[in-house]
Amino acid sequence: MEKVYIVDAIRTPGTKRGKGGFKDTRSDELISFLLKEVMKRQDKIDKKIVDDVTIGCAFPESEQGLNLGRVAVQLAGFPDSVPGFTINRFCSSGLESIAITAFKIKAGGLSIGIGGGVESMTNVPMGGNVIRPNPEASDKNPEIYVSMGITAENVAKRYDISRKDQDEFSVLSHQKAANATKNKLFKEIIPTPANKYTLQENGTYKKETFIVEDDDGVREDTTFEGLSKLRPVFSASGSVTAGNSSQMTDGAGVAILASETKVKELGLKPIAEFVDYVAVGCAADEMGVGPSVAIPALLKRNKLDIKDIGLFELNEAFASQALYCQRKLGIDMDKINIHGGAIALGHPLGCTGAKLTATLITNLEETKKEIGVVSMCIGGGMGAAGLIKKI
Question: Could you identify which of 54, 165, 173, 244 might form a hypothetical disulfide with 344, taking C-beta atoms 3.0 to 4.6 angstroms apart as the criterion?
Fold first, then answer.
């Protein structure tokens, strides 16, 4: 099978649900903008030769429904001949879309494809607009539908992850993210247009556009003392708070992938090789442990050891689960989320995998490391991990 290269990987900033920069911007606008931008950056690739576009979304309904992947392709000005579709593996949807594209290229089904992800948690709430669990399944196996926050509490209690450790981890996430923002280290971010609606004197609203340049959830002034005052939000006797959980966020990310043959034919300059990807199941009521089973499976298949990996982008769904996975796998903390994670930067569900892929490649370039892993836990009891090799 051919090697698969990532030719480009970019993302929008991540903005806070309901009050951040993208609160009045639709998902299809975010993802179609990125598709247009990534094609502008790669002027050797004509839109008409893109074989397929795959977009991940955790709750593909309402503003992000109607096969968002196909809608985005059309809004971005691709010719009608270029198809698009939407996939959902909850928190790994963005990474899954890149992996699907890569595996299709490896198998010879595509030469050039785009994978990405988007989520507006402002427009579509966690769980979707109408939540209808199977009543019989809820009675016999309620863990299928358990709150993500409760799973984080389960991990903390079962594996002795203290409130103190969770809060300290969260402070560090904000500190690293604030430093990276200040020093413009998120080079994968594309300044992105956003909408706002201003009330006019005649009672109508005027649509205006402005540019969002940075992630807006980072709190530079976060302190351990401040976080320690927050109350648990999922269990009165628990340790998981709003401060040591990921922020609900709006954002998008995309990557262009191409076969080795096509890279040579077009004279492209790839930024990384997409080596492999795995998804593994785990108990639904402690879904946060997912990376601790997915990462070993990925490394075993590629005959690698934890020590061989230069950097990890480990999604911080909750501090409790991120700490558990770090300890279980024995990962050096200095290799994890070197510029902060989702506690500071946000977790826009279907976008996150694509977002973290772009960030990992940027960070590998900055640190001159060769091999990186992007990984996350997934609602319903799964973990996913992707292996990236810097060119």
Answer: 173
**57 labelled catalytic:** no
Among this protein's residues, is 377 annotated catalytic? yes
| 67, HSE (Cβ side, Cα atoms, 13 Å) | 9
Average pLDDT over residues 176-181: 98
For residue 141, what pLDDT band results from cuts at 50, 70 and 90?
Answer: confident
pLDDT, tens only, 46-92: 999 999 999 999 999 999 999 999 999 999 999 999 999 999 999 99
What six digits make up the tokens of 330?
């024995």
Angstrom CA distances, 55 to 35, 64, 94, stand at: 11, 11, 7
Beta-strand pair 84-87/52-56: parallel
Q: For residues 108 and 11, is the Cβ–Cβ distance under 8 A?
A: no
Out of 57, 91, 282, 325, the active site residue is 91
Residue 339 a catalytic site member: no
Phi, psi of 243 (to 5 degrees): -80, -25
| pLDDT value, residue 178 | 98
The neighbour count for residue 182, using CB atoms within 10 Å, is 11
Choose, from 282, 325, 339, 347, the residue flagged as catalytic: 347
The pLDDT assigned to 140 comes to 85
